[in-house]
Amino acid sequence: MAVQLGLCVLAIVIMAGLPILILFGQDTAARRLDRTLRTIKGRAAERTFEERLEHHRNVRALKNQRGMPIERLGADLRRLRHLIQHSEHHSATQQEALRRAYDSALADTCRMLAIEHELDRPTAGIERDIERVRIEANLELRGIVLTPPRRHDQNA
């Protein structure tokens, strides 16, 4: 009889206590969530309207990208530039093809970054070289690395 009474009391405690523990756990989780949401809203409120608008435009631009990624264009420019610098043993046709490919990659990068260029005009010789140098400097200013950093073991 005492065993049955003990089991009955235990059953009542479990049936009454379990929902209370569940509600307590749920309330604790809800408070954490509220605190997190307030923190996020506080950060969002700290941003100005212009910052939020710029963020929205940047996200939209990333979603609607067209063309080759800028990293790929930068890598192509570095590769082609290296090939041009070391093409003294190639034929004149191969050298001209490398220069045209480099000019095309430069023009694509300029279009992507909205940089004015004159590579579409039929220029040649020193004028073309000056335009390439001007564009390369402009790209370097915009963060496109065209010249890899020199290693310590390389000679100048």
Number of helices: 5
Percentage of residues in DSSP E strands: under 5%
Categorize the overall geometry. elongated
Low-confidence stretches: none
Structural domain tally: 2
**End-to-end distance:** 98 Å
How many beta-strand runs?
0
Order of helices and strands: HHHHH
Derived structural class: mainly alpha
Quick tags:
single chain; 156 residues; mainly alpha; 2 domains; 73% helix; elongated
How are the elements arranged and paired?
Elements: H1 2-46, H2 49-63, H3 70-85, H4 92-113, H5 126-141
Helix pairs in contact: 3-4, 4-5
Summarize the structure.
By secondary structure, this protein is mostly helical.
Write up this protein.
The protein is an all-alpha fold. It has two domains: 62 residues; 72 residues, no CATH class. It is 73% helix and 0% strand. The protein is built from five helices and no strands. Helix 3 packs antiparallel against helix 4 and helix 4 crosses helix 5. It is elongated. The N and C termini lie far apart (98 Å). 6% of the residues are buried.
